[in-house]
Amino acid sequence: MYKSILWEVREHTGILTLNRPDRLNALDYTMREEIADVVRKVEYDADIWTLIVTGTGRGFCSGADLKARAEAENTGGGNSILTQPMFDAHYYYPIAFGEISKPVIAAVNGVTRGAGNNMAFAADFRIASDKATFGCNFVERGLMAEASAYYLPRLVGMAIATEICMLGEPFDAAQAKAWGVVNKVVPHDTLMDEAMALARKLNSKAPIAVRMTKQALHRAHDISAEQFIDMQNTMNTKLRYTADAKEALAAFIEKRPAKFQNK
After folding, report:
1. Residue 136: exposed, middle, or buried by beta-carbon count in 10 A (0-12, 13-18, 19+)?
2. Which residue in 46, 36, 34 sits closest to 9, CA to CA?
3. Residue 76: left if φ>0, alpha if ψ -120 to 50, beta else—which one?
4. Which of 93, 168, 183, 257 has the most CB atoms at less than 10 Å from its CB?
5. Residue with more model confidence, 88 or 16
6. In 22-134, which residue ranges form alpha helices assigned H by DSSP?
7. Is residue 262 in some structural domain?
8. In sequence order, what E strands does the chain have?
9. Which CATH number do you get for residue 65?
10. What pLDDT shows up at residue 81?
């Protein structure tokens, strides 16, 4: 069905694998559209509770496919590519990973540059292979740091975000962990096992409560404490009437694991 990605669902977890290993999973127009299609599926499929994003081969995502863009320009297709909106909050992948209600895990397996950083930083969790490298090299291409400049200050603070975005220099997984860019660094061969273990842990919680918590975390930057309390009260009032909340209370009283159904 897809040309540039692999897609599967297991254990309530969608696994999106960028699959252009010959170009280190660089993004072309087809891949962008296919990622957008998957994001829509994840958002509206009640059986998918968590999304994992990773890559095949040596790259997570090396950024935009500049070679493909140059080839398109040489064959007369450049104008349409250059005039396409680079960001559309309704579907464009970096914003979408942050804005969809389901939690997103970036399993960063290798080379990550440019737009690849946008995807990783927009995710809710980042697990990095010990072979992963990062680099917001937009300034070396004459561009600003795109969504990385939005997400990084929230992840690591302004000082480190400024260093990463303005200098554009590559850094390895150990440095990413030291800066707080990633949650965890693991041996390369165990990366997907670690990502699936985290997905299972997330999926063992009440799914609707997890989604509302993600929403609250994202909105907390933009509202006052009083507004947050109002939002909190509204959310928890709704949650108390869910079947999963009732199951959580019953499981607590009966001293057994809860069996959530996303209801």
Report:
1. buried
2. 46
3. left
4. 93
5. 16
6. 29-44, 66-74, 78-83, 93-99, 115-122
7. no
8. 5-10, 13-18, 50-55, 59-61, 104-108, 111-112, 125-129, 133-134, 171-172, 184-186
9. 3.90.226.10
10. 42
Which two tokens mark 14? Answer: 């969608």
The token pair at 131 is 């072979």
Report pLDDT for 68.
67
Q: Is residue 123 part of a domain?
A: yes
Which pLDDT score is estimated for 62?
95
Structure tokens, 262? 């996303």
CA 31 to chain centre: 15
**Residue 260, domain member (yes or no):** no
pLDDT digit string (tens) for 4-38?
A: 999 999 999 999 999 999 999 999 989 999 999 99
Polymer length in residues for the chain:
263
